[in-house]
From TrEMBL:
Gene3D superfamilies: Adenoviral Proteinase, Chain A. Residues 107-173 form the Ubiquitin-like protease family profile domain. PANTHER family: OS10G0338966 PROTEIN-RELATED, TRANSPOSASE, PTTA_EN_SPM, PLANT. GO terms for biological process: proteolysis. Keywords: Hydrolase, Protease. GO terms for molecular function: cysteine-type peptidase activity. This is Ubiquitin-like protease family profile domain-containing protein. Belongs to the peptidase C48 family. It holds the Pfam family Peptidase_C48. It comes from Rosa chinensis (China rose). It comes from the Eukaryota. InterPro entries: Papain-like_cys_pep_sf, Peptidase_C48_C.
Length: 180
């Protein structure tokens, strides 16, 4: 249960892309590369916002984007902190404002952030990559995308080690299959 890199998450996103294809959900869910927006990143906050905006420009109507960054925008924090403040919130808010300006959209002046407080919390600070991958998997497995209702209220639901091991095994099998 060591900390995983953004590259590991990207590999798992590729596995999930295959699931989305099989489920015929490509128009419903898409991904943003965490290496372009994560804490260890290329460029500054503006570059991160630009990358998110560019990715949003490829969106289908009502498509959900999964931005695995540890954080309408739904925020899932497995360490059970409060809604995001500071740099990350500013990056996403700026990206959405840039997107709206590019598209000529007028509307609310700020993003409405919603904390999905019912997500399973991680036990310590090293498992976040596994939890992010598990959240993405649970969202994709939820064919009607009702994850907001499921996770909007606090709950006592916890992932077991077996739940996390499913992710680890899927990742490993996908990597082995991809390189054979």
């Amino acid at each position: 249960m060591r900390e995983v890199t953004g590259n590991c998450i990207v590999v798992y996103q590729r596995y999930l892309l295959d699931l989305l294809t099989r489920y015929k959900m490509l128009d419903m869910v898409a991904f943003v590369d965490p290496s372009m927006i994560g804490a260890i990143r290329y460029g500054d906050g503006h570059a991160q916002s630009q990358h998110i905006k560019d990715r949003l420009l490829t969106a289908k109507p009502n498509q959900i984007f999964l931005l695995p960054y540890n954080a309408d925008v739904y925020f899932m924090d497995p360490l059970k902190r409060r809604l995001p403040t500071g740099e990350w919130r500013s990056i996403v808010d700026t990206a959405i404002a840039m997107y709206n300006a590019h598209k000529g959209k007028k509307g609310r002046s700020s993003v409405l952030w919603k904390n999905l407080a019912g997500i399973p919390p991680q036990p310590s600070s090293t498992e976040c990559g596994y939890f992010v991958m598990r959240y993405m998997r649970d969202i994709i497995e939820d064919k009607d995308l009702s994850f907001v209702r499921k996770w909007e209220r606090r709950s006592n639901y916890m992932y077991s080690q077996e739940d996390i091991d499913v992710i680890r095994n899927e990742w490993a099998k996908f990597v082995v299959k991809s390189y054979m």
